[in-house]
Design a protein that fits this description.
This protein has 728 residues and is an alpha+beta fold. Helix 2 packs across helix 8 and helix 13 packs parallel to helix 15. The chain has 16 helices and 31 strands. A hairpin with a 2-residue loop joins strand 24 and strand 25. The strands form seven sheets. Strands 10-11-14-18-19-20-21-22 form an eight-stranded parallel β-barrel. The protein has a six-stranded antiparallel sheet with strand order 23-24-25-31-27-28. It folds into two domains: 402 residues, Glycosidases (TIM Barrel, Alpha-Beta Barrel), CATH 3.20.20; 118 residues, Immunoglobulin-like (Sandwich), CATH 2.60.40. It holds the Pfam family Alpha-amylase_C.
Length: 728
């Protein structure tokens, strides 16, 4: 287990033994009371609204021990508080059963409760499957919506999933997307529009997985979906539950995995619209939340779950099963895991890697045990499901299986990498960047033990008040210099585009075992994300994605997108991101050159702003012949075309690695004709019979060319369609 593979954990054996005991004791209790963990996670079959398949009778149940009385109200009974009273059992669960079809499909529902202080409140049910505001009233509160499409004659009713779930790829290339802001137009996009217009773009670009933000219902749009109000409901801004199912089915039809950005670390403090409305000031044992200051996140202004509470565990574990089985999703990106792992929530902490920071009295064992149960549940329901943790602390064992003493995630996000790039762009000219600094940050992870998803930037860097990498690089010239006149553009534009491509290549090549990109950043989306709010007069002008900029044949954005397509094609054809072989053979501070091996590929990065290097020697892993398969300086990417593509490089022996006179600890070397300034060039080792003649592409280069050409053809079709629409 973890104690044997990581000796640094041995002094904390007592912590792990205690954690394991809490986990096994809780697991035993669940098995004794519910039969199994998977059965325990079927709460949505007993709580909330359920329908007896034989009789058609509708039962509504709500766990709310402090309520003095409760009744179900809604359109079905004209919101009459006395018409549908509920009864309470010994465990604090309220219940009422109604005749078949007593509540119409899509009708509004809430419950009315008398609180311990005698107040009367109306609340959205905790297990509600859809929730909407009154669209005719600005600022109106949310109502629960009774969702029973099987009782409807609506022709748009989802008929069932038809596409098979995609097989697990050798490595994940994740497209982080927000459905609402995915339209080219300044509006809130729908699930069906996203499936029709955006999914094809994602597939054509070479991604194999989408990570969907803001799917769980949230009353405040500007929260980016992280202030969840109804965890079992899909966001009504973009459509219905059936329409979201159609999106998932279409993604699967295209071979794309679907991950949900899951928020179990906290919940919105909005009592009128969601789960926080269940807090009547009751004891912790009767609440979804911790009491006192422990129940609030000071920075996020949100409520914190009480993970040791039996009914909270039922609620959250059932929520995981709900998204896997009801919506056929393929896994989760768990948001805010650092906040869950520690009582201090990571606030004002600077983690140094000292293990005492991870395993101490500050560790929230109840939350850790919940995550262990969540991992066990997800893997028991779907062994290939993906679990990704957003953790900035770097806790050891987070991505080690539960059976081996870990918490059970498959991947962690490399959250330090965006910070690296932003700090370099903000604080130093690129001629002063340290090669050793870049390499040490890229490789600072638990390689071989725990997997990492690398990314240069995500949605965090796109939010108003921050800047994307493209904007840090090109700033105001993005408004004036992105028109394509056939040249490399101004000094700022050429520098910006070159470094934009290099940063992505280094991050994908060195930073992890998978890769993530936020929607639009692949082509250097200009400006920032700003959701409609009072401060911007409720405008959606900056809450959209201008995919049309990358489609245009008159703008330079398309070259950044082509590079992204080429990188994904390189990874798809070689599998380098999942290859265990990773070695940095050179990090030359004066030359500003980095050479590293990933799988069978040789990456040569020149970050010097002006120096081209002729006859430049680089070490290689094996003897053989090598040839360029990808080049950021190529004309295809609006580069200067300095790299020699036709040449086949034959290796020269370098003796015993590490011995006298050996070069860079490699058994062989090749001498490159030119290593252009500000470029990334990737070399492929040729197999016998491949590319014997000059002018022939390597097999990998051919695969890249095919992917780029196919993408270009699709972009041309979109341009022609846009022209026809504009003409009409």
């Amino acid at each position: 287990g973890l104690l044997s593979t990581d000796p640094a954990t041995v002094p904390f054996r007592g912590h792990f033994e205690y954690r394991w005991k809490v986990y096994t004791d809780l697991r035993k209790t669940i098995q004794e009371t519910a039969g199994s963990l998977t059965q325990f996670a079927c709460g949505y079959q007993q709580l909330g609204f359920t329908k007896d398949e034989e009789t058609g009778r509708i039962t509504y149940r709500e766990w709310l021990p402090p309520a003095q009385s409760m009744s179900l109200v809604g359109d079905f009974n004209n919101w009459n508080e006395g018409a549908t009273p509920m009864s309470r059992d010994a465990f604090g669960t309220w219940e009422v059963t109604l005749p078949p079809e007593a509540i119409p499909h899509r009708s509004k529902v809430k419950f009315c409760a008398l609180t311990p202080d005698g107040s009367k409140v109306y609340r959205v049910p905790a297990w509600i499957r859809w929730s909407c505001p009154d669209l005719g009233k600005f600022g109106s509160t949310y109502d629960g919506i009774y969702w029973d499409p099987a009782s409807s004659t609506d022709d748009l009713c989802f008929k069932g999933f038809t596409a098979p779930r995609p097989e697990m790829p050798q490595s994940l290339r994740i497209y982080e997307a927000h459905v609402g802001m995915s339209s080219i137009e300044p509006k809130c996009n729908s699930y069906l529009e996203f499936a029709k217009d955006v999914l094809p773009r994602i597939k054509e670009s070479g991604y194999n997985c989408i990570q969907l933000m803001a799917i769980m219902e949230h009353s405040y749009y500007g929260s980016f979906g992280y202030h969840v109000t109804s965890p079992f409901a899909v966001s009504s801004r973009s459509g219905t539950p059936d329409e979201f199912k159609a999106l998932v089915d279409e993604a699967h039809r295209m071979g794309l995995l679907v991950l949900i950005d899951l928020v179990h670390s906290h919940v919105s403090n909005n009592a009128d619209d969601g789960l926080n409305g269940m807090d009547f000031g009751q004891a912790e044992s009767d609440s979804y939340f911790m009491t006192g200051d422990r129940g609030y996140h000071r920075l996020w202004d949100s409520r914190l779950y009480c993970y040791k509470n039996y009914e909270v565990l039922r609620y959250l574990l059932s929520n995981l099963r709900w998204w896997l089985e009801e919506y056929n999703c393929d896994g989760f990106r768990f948001d805010g895991v650092t906040s869950m792992l520690y009582h201090h929530h990571g606030l004002y902490m600077s983690f140094t890697g000292n293990y005492e920071e991870y395993f101490s009295m500050q560790t929230d064992v109840d939350a850790v045990v919940y995550l262990m149960l969540a991992s066990e549940l997800v893997k028991s329901l779907r062994p290939n499901a993906i679990m990704i943790a957003e953790d900035v602390s770097g806790m050891p064992g987070l991505c080690v299986p539960v059976a081996e003493g870990g918490i059970g995630f498959d991947y962690r996000l490399a959250m330090s990498l965006p910070d690296l790039w932003i700090s370099l762009l903000k604080e130093a000219k690129d001629e002063h960047w340290g090669m050793n600094h870049i390499i040490s940050r890229m490789c600072n992870r638990r390689r071989g033990v725990e997997k990492t998803i690398a990314y240069a930037e995500c949605h965090d860097q796109s939010i108003v008040g921050d800047k994307t990498i493209a904007f840090w690089l090109m700033d105001a010239e993005m408004y004036t210099g992105m028109g394509d006149d056939g040249t490399q553009g101004t000094v700022a534009i050429e520098r910006g585009m070159s470094l934009h491509m290099i940063i992505r290549a280094i991050t994908m090549g060195l930073g992890g075992e998978g890769y993530l990109n936020f929607m639009g950043n692949e082509f250097g989306h200009p400006e920032w994300v700003d959701f409609p709010r009072e401060g911007n007069s409720w405008s959606s002008a900056h809450c959209r994605r201008r995919f049309d900029l990358a489609d245009s044949g008159l703008l330079r954005y398309r070259f950044l997108l082509k590079w992204d397509v080429a990188l994904h094609a390189l990874e798809e054809s070689t599998g380098f991101a999942s290859d265990e072989h990773l070695l940095v053979s050179s990090q030359h501070e004066e030359d500003k050159v980095i050479v590293f091996e990933r799988g069978e590929l040789i990456f040569v990065i020149n970050l010097h702003p002006c120096n081209d290097y002729m006859d430049y020697k680089v070490g290689v892993r094996e003897h053989g012949r090598y040839k360029v398969c990808l080049d950021s300086d190529a004309y295809d990417f609006r580069g200067r075309g300095r790299t020699v593509h036709d040449w086949v490089y034959f290796s020269a022996p370098e003796g015993v690695p590490g011995g006298p006179g050996n070069f860079n600890d490699r058994m062989a070397s090749i001498t490159l004709k030119v290593v252009p300034a500000r470029s990334c060039t990737v070399y492929e080792k040729l197999l016998e019979g491949h590319a014997q003649q000059t002018g022939m592409d390597t097999p990998v280069a051919q695969a890249i060319r095919h992917a780029v050409d196919a993408h270009e053809a699709s972009a041309e079709e979109r341009r022609e369609m846009a022209d026809r629409v504009q003409g009409a």
